[in-house]
Prior knowledge:
The protein is mostly helical. Helix content is 42%, strand content 0%. The chain starts with a helix and ends in a 12-residue tail after the last helix.
Amino acid sequence: MKKEVLQLAAFEAVDLTEKLFNETEKHMAEELTDVSFKSSEFAWLQYTYADQYAKYISFAAISSNLAAKTIIEKSHKKAKHGVSFVPVEGTKMKEICPIDHIEECIIGKYRSYTGHCNNIKKPRSGAAYEKLRRFLPADYGDGISSVRLSVSGNELASPRALSSLFTPSPSGHAVCSLLLAPFLSFIYDDMVHVPSNRIFKRE
């Protein structure tokens, strides 16, 4: 793969992400008001509100996603299997990737509130803002971010449709109590809480 293709893809991706963060989002915040949203949409935006650091590290993630798609479009179809290992040296991507090396863990009486250095051998494991380790390799339809496809290349059936087809609706549950719902909400927040872009004014 030519270096010029990588450099151009990285430059275009960073440029598009900067427009999203600095122009598009600002324009939407100025033009849209609270009354532009349904109550359910407004509640969801409030619920998934992301803090500033999460938004900062998402910049590199969005740029990488866009760059990978551009590389695949301009390369051979088989390139999607190796796009994760494309070197970023000498490209715009190298400048924006967040680097936060932990040189030494300071011994203390209490654990850190972020989770860093709680495990000295693996100081980032389970810490805030760190990536989660996969049990299985990623399997995206386009090799980057789209929904997984079947072995034939077609779209998979809806899990909800399959569960409704093969599993009868339960009439009740003798074990679960009303505490199940808030407990699942807690698990959701802790493990898969995904922030959305902020597109309304928040004082």
